[in-house]
Amino acid sequence: MASFFDYFRSRKPNSASVAKERLQIIVAHERSQRQQPDYLPALQKELLEVIKKYVQVAQDDISIQIDNTDNCSVLELNITLPEK
Amino acid sequence: MAKIIVVTSGKGGVGKTTSSAAIGTGLALRGHKTVVIDFDVGLRNLDLIMNCERRVVYDFINVVNNEATLNQALIKDKRVETLYILPASQTRDKDALTREGVEKVLIELAETFEYIVCDSPAGIEKGALMALYFADEAVVVTNPEVSSVRDSDRIIGILHSKSRRAETGQEPIKEHLLLTRYDPERVELGEMLGVKDVQDILAIPLLGVIPESEAVLKCSNQGIPVILESQSDAGQAYEDAVSRLLGDERPMRFLTAPKKGFFKRMFGG
Ligand SMILES: Nc1ncnc2c1ncn2[C@@H]1O[C@H](COP(=O)(O)OP(=O)(O)O)[C@@H](O)[C@H]1O
Ligand SMILES: [Mg+2]
């Protein structure tokens, strides 16, 4: 049975679970960052040059990432094209 | 074959030196000839924690630079027969450590010692990289707190990529999580990350949980590795951890708060 005191206790947000959630997100992000191969920044730069020949894009309109699963790697390329 | 164990964390002040002293002493108490090396060049403290600060004549850097022999620099513990300390230099900085120099000292130590415990400095710079580079096993000291957990994950990444075992494609470093300064009461109140939370995030095997304990300060005041305080909770928790490191199975202790009386529960304390 919940007591009078438990009521006040449970009203407080459980800060430990907030901590866990935040950690899970940031740690997953940082792990994926450090698994990226060294050549990625150079590849990104060269791709940007090629794309610029055809459309007006800036450095931060393009993002590139490699995702490794068990038996294949996927190169993910995101380009935001300017509005017409 | 000597086993090289690095005690590391990324973050400072989480209990690396306390743990290095306890684990080194614990291994020696089991009859294994053990040396604990202080890699915190410029900020040596292991000597104080192990009560040999007044016996330091030569240090690790002197041996690296051939200014002293290993036997001149090694300090034999006065309490435990098979325990030795190799102190850090207080006057140089971490650039005095070279990979070749460290390797030379480790090779020589490996001729006579069974365990070489490396007390890492904080950070992810040269000193910490040197301490972990040659390791066979790593004890990742972590507090149940966001920045410590994040930094531990960072160090685990470095163990995976920048150690000798990683660079030469050998079997990876055996990793152990040592959760220290654990306060079961605050965990029960939802104010502190619990063992399972930290394990879920870091995903390496758990070596032990050391409770937040008054015994640690009392012992460091006197230069006694806390594992020698066999009545204390932290001492017993380290004792369990050393047993697990040696392959024994021990149930985890000190994971729940001692039961409090009615008034303490009502009004705190
Ligand atoms: N289990 C514990 N309970 C209470 N205090 C602790 C515990 N472990 C470490 N400490 C304290 O935390 C501080 C930092 O410990 P230390 O071992 O020097 O950390 P590091 O080597 O990682 O910087 C010291 O004051 C030490 O007494
Ligand atoms: Mg230290």
UniProtKB/TrEMBL annotation, chain A:
InterPro entries: MinE (IPR005527), MinE_sf (IPR036707). Keywords: Cell cycle, Cell division. The keyword Cell division applies. One of its GO terms (molecular function) is identical protein binding. Gene3D superfamilies: Cell division topological specificity factor MinE (3.30.1070.10). Pfam families: MinE. SUPFAM superfamilies: Cell division protein MinE topological specificity domain. The keyword NADP does not apply. One of its GO terms (biological process) is regulation of division septum assembly. Belongs to the MinE family. Prevents the cell division inhibition by proteins MinC and MinD at internal division sites while permitting inhibition at polar sites. This ensures cell division at the proper site by restricting the formation of a division septum at the midpoint of the long axis of the cell. This is Cell division topological specificity factor. It comes from Proteobacteria bacterium 228.
UniProtKB/TrEMBL annotation, chain B:
Residues 5-226 form the CobQ/CobB/MinD/ParA nucleotide binding domain. Keywords: ATP-binding, Cell cycle, Cell division, Nucleotide-binding, Septation. It holds the Pfam family CbiA. CDD domains: MinD (cd02036). It comes from the Bacteria. InterPro entries: CobQ/CobB/MinD/ParA_Nub-bd_dom (IPR002586), MinD (IPR010223), MinD_FleN (IPR025501), P-loop_NTPase (IPR027417), ParA/MinD_ATPase (IPR050625). ATPase required for the correct placement of the division site. Cell division inhibitors MinC and MinD act in concert to form an inhibitor capable of blocking formation of the polar Z ring septums. Rapidly oscillates between the poles of the cell to destabilize FtsZ filaments that have formed before they mature into polar Z rings. Interacts with MinC and FtsZ. PANTHER family: SEPTUM SITE-DETERMINING PROTEIN MIND HOMOLOG, CHLOROPLASTIC, SEPTUM SITE-DETERMINING PROTEIN MIND HOMOLOG, CHLOROPLASTIC-RELATED. This is Septum site-determining protein MinD. It comes from Pokkaliibacter plantistimulans. The lineage of its organism: Bacteria, Pseudomonadati, Pseudomonadota, Gammaproteobacteria, Oceanospirillales.
